[in-house]
Amino acid sequence: MRAARSACFVALAALGGLGAAQTAAIRVTAFPQVSVADARSTVTISAEVRDGSGRLALDGTQVLFSTTLGSFREPITTTYNGVARAVLVAGGLPGTARITATAPGLNAESITDFEFLSDRGLLASANEYVEVVAPTYLAMSLDQKILGATGPKHGAHLRYREVQLEADDLQFDIQAMEVRARRAHLKMGKVDQAFDDLYLKLNLRKGVGTGAYQAPVITGVIPQGRWFSVVTESRARYGLVEIRPGGLSPSRKPATPSDFEFVDYSRSATMISAKKAVVFPRREVQFHKAEVVADGAKVMRFALFQVSLTGPTPILTEQIISVNDSHLAVNYPHYLSLKPGLTSLMRFRTGENIGRGMGASGGSFLDYEVAWNRGDRSEGGFTFSGLNRSDSNLSLRHYLRMDDRTTLSAQLESPAERSIFGSLNVNRQFAGYQVGLSGISTRSLRGVPYANQQLNLTAETDPIKAGRLPVQLYYGLTASSNSLQSQFLDRSQSAIGARLRSQLLPRQLDRVTRLNASCTVSELAGHNSPRGLSMQGTTSVNRRLGGGAGIAAIYDYLNDPISSPLTGHHRLTLQSSYEAKRSSVSLMANRSLDADRSGYQADLGYRVSGLWRLRFSQSYDRYLGSGFLDSSALLSYRLGGRDIGLSWSRRDRRLGFQLLGTSFN
After folding, report:
1. pLDDT tens, position by position, 595-628
2. Which of 101, 203, 456, 655 is the most buried (most CB within 10 A)?
């Protein structure tokens, strides 16, 4: 079997040139992978741009960046050695930002989502994992994100931090972080107890269970001075108990039927069975001795396998090999090592669908990837992409929680081995305030001399309540230094000043409407730095419309001497979604009210019948008189567990053939 997989891997590499479409593509990555909505944290957004043949785009190719949360220091940049980079500064509102990178000259666009957390303490939970082992039976529904395990005589094992659970049967709802078990034994804090039925909210360490427990019982009364004393002894009882790390107590309310009820996921389109699974609830699941089951048929086996928990969930076989716009698309990972602390693999990819259209990118790539993780203490990775190409890319990244108050993240890249890029972020919590230092640097190794450095330092107090107002205030100091040296230019800039950030505590306007807002004001002065007051503010209103629909309106105000002349001062963003049995709609539109910049993205889906589906996607981005419009349509037919369809792309202006997993339900 091992030799067969290796032969398959070599064969895929040999087929790399088949079906490469002439479509420019952008790959967008973010580092770090998650950040805090504190109006000062920075994220490096990198956009690797390649032309239709897979070659890196020429230096100077313009790339426009936009985001629905936060702001870019320089929203318009150009490529250097095929990569354009922009620094995203966090806003004051938590949530998922939709980041768009557009290369108008190449008619290419790519979109990625980035999560801003409400509190820095949540960063640690992003790296936690749950380990499940069951030699008899272990399977996960990729559709419902539920993992089940069975083993006689407590043969199914689950471990999460200090929580250890052994059971005959258990189910783990990954998205809800809930465990249900039968005939189980739980060890957690002071709890070391057997249960007939068990429900546990893992991340809260709370739950209920049925089983025997010790309860105090009054056995008599004895005189004690002028008073009497009650004599009690501990006796075994059976019933419903509340579970907490400190111990057990009789439940004050009855259990609901859903507390102990297992979910039936036997009809899931895609299942993965294994001997062991390691679940990172925010990212991925790693499987040992995995077997992929599609529509009840065993289709693939892997000694080691990994699936993502984010994004769409097509049939797994189509994640590896599919037909995209009449071209072969391959993304084949060959795992060398897969365990909670270390993952290494070789990946072959070609014909990728990067962006929102139906087109396939050109070029074939052989990558070597290593990722490591030490729980909530550290994580990182190394990637050598394009081993088979002259324009290969080296990338190293690492996150480290040095102690309970200090975190560090660093990144190092060498695009095409012609330049080197590095970034560093350090945050330290002191008594009553916190300090953050961020820096990026780019330097050429070959060719035309080029060097660019940026350094930013921010100190900010912990939140202070603004009297009786539902507002928190943060006072701070900020300093920055920038320099740029090239063959024709040598300039530097430095600034220092004070800042004030205000954060509205989220307000519930009614049962279905929620208001949130934040504002940051800064006063800077320094060498070659624009003087004056700068301000950034955001207000959002979210409303549930009922019937599976919702809408959000976001207003952004930016008064910054550097960015405002490019993007304007006022921006309005609208987001809406609707889900029904036969149709789905997702819309996002933004417009600068005092600058020529606007854009929208629309996704429409309709189920014509049980077998036929329609899908339409369109995106538009306009800046200073020039615009980029891309749209695609798909008519698909369900054949077994797969969709076969005809596609049309405005970019290619021709019909294409698609063989894919389910696009929408």
Report:
1. 998 999 999 999 898 889 899 999 898 888 888 8
2. 101
